[in-house]
């Protein structure tokens, strides 16, 4: 680790597991395209590799066979595609081909520069016949031009002179990775891409490809530029293009091949080939120095908006910065896409969007870059009609039910007990819309798109729930915990529904007062009778509570089940989902992840602090944290309860998940939700930040392992920097108007800076 903005690995292991892990860790992405960090020259036969390049929101339809064809069962799904392979660069000197697996690797290094926005690979290599050369590779997916991926491949002849050949490939007939033994990735490999056209003109290769079923088209275009004059031979064979560049190198000379690749899809462009040519032409008009500078300027702005620094632990500070960098690499930059569970780093969960976005990742953008948060909500609005259709499939006469996992709006969950039944997705999305409003007070956007989401999700609760003995109950649903499925009155689901209904009523009032209600009211046909129903359901919502234990049961039946013996379960049997039948798990008190504890973070005002404390203590004993979404939430609630050691323990497990591959599946892609949760563990946990209608609240604490930490947030258009160290908490107004905040319940006006003594014990 060189600097706080650079993560590096020296002396690269050529073990297959290490190679495929580094493909993920050092991938390049910009929210539109993602490229795994494969060796340009590939691996020898017999090595397993997930060689992929992806477009956010670009998909095909795959069959999902059901053993029994019951009504409404999902029989097809969307899957993110590996669209092309433009990484290939092969080097030979006087006939000796460079390979990390032959000759002698004298030194090697890979790194990620999070300030410059690129990855690097440096190798000093001695061939079997003694030729020594230094290969330096620099790769970038541009934030300035989202379609652009570049590779700068530099060769230095250290002790020889002779003929050098660089062969660059552009392959369009590629497949997705599959692993039939892992439910988190595709189980079968299909030919999702149909070659349409391959063209070569002026050294530019263009490959146009259709999807097999979704009706989408992609065009990838590639141009190779060598830094010195060379003999160039380019040709097309099938749905692939090859460009060979040969030249003579003197001893000590350096040459650089710059490979420009652009990706264009039919979701965003009518004529993909023309658009690809135009994008490539624009990329070639400017030198690489321009694109690197533009990349740095984008990231300078990003880090200025979202700076989060830890003092006293440089390695941890770097891990946190890595997580935030991956979030900006992963998040879609338009309303046609969202954030996949693995970002654009791999094929885990097939590129699907989950509730992970709203509950774990969007909070980061809501607080630091609300424009991106607005895009994420706009995506959910764009699939609202599909959510309405989904509700009808599930038997609902009114409202919208968002799919549990999706790309273009249709449900992709084949196992409904732990998928489609997670109705809390509606509450999660409604919560994210509300949080955006609380952070920005952007009522115009609520009137334009947000309110329609809020009202339609509220309507769904009125249809799925009903009144029983004076209480509004919601039966046959699944909460966040996927080891407990198809239950009545999951606490998290019910309290999220209550919050959704509350804000449907509140937004109605706010929009009416602002004269902005009529359009959405007319479109949806909202009635006073309906609103009265919302109000009654909110007030009468059944929230399970156990008098004897003083906790909120996870659902009506949870406490009646035997407790799983976690302590005596063999370590090799974790995660449990890979070793025990779902029905077996459902019959026990055992949690895959935070469920009621998550509710106590998100909806903390629904219960007393004592109830939250007792619930935390109870569920801590029955939670395996088999989900990467879990420990960050336990850290936040432990912070709220003043359990500093536990808060830090859970935080540490969360922060280093991908860099240390603690869940042993980072090869399939990063855990983007955990990365967002890691941010929340600091800002919402240690910082004690809460967004409420009554204002912006903080209850800061300082982990004993740190000397301090600081972060920036944006609130109602103003930027505030929060600095916490042993001398206290300082709140500085960086930009915008003065804002009122609450610290430990006391009100302060931040005009310049405000300092508040630190309370270590709450």
From TrEMBL:
UniProt xrefs under Gene3D superfamilies: 1.50.10.10, Glycoside hydrolase, family 65, N-terminal domain, Maltose phosphorylase, domain 3
Glycoside hydrolase family 65 C-terminal domain mapped to chain residues: 689-749
GO biological process: carbohydrate metabolic process
Ranges where the Glycoside hydrolase family 65 N-terminal domain occurs: 14-264
Protein family (similarity comment): Belongs to the glycosyl hydrolase 65 family.
Record-annotated Glycoside hydrolase family 65 central catalytic domain positions: 321-679
Protein name: Alpha,alpha-trehalose phosphorylase
InterPro entries: 6-hairpin_glycosidase_sf, 6hp_glycosidase-like_sf, Gal_mutarotase_sf_dom, GH65_N, Glyco_hydro_65_C, Glyco_hydro_65_M, Glyco_hydro_65_N, Malt_Pase/Glycosyl_Hdrlase
Active site: 482
Keywords carried by this UniProt record: Glycosyltransferase, Transferase
Organism the protein comes from: Murimonas intestini
Residues noted as binding substrate in the record, renumbered to the chain: 355-356, 592-593
Keyword ATP-binding: no
GO molecular function, one term: carbohydrate binding
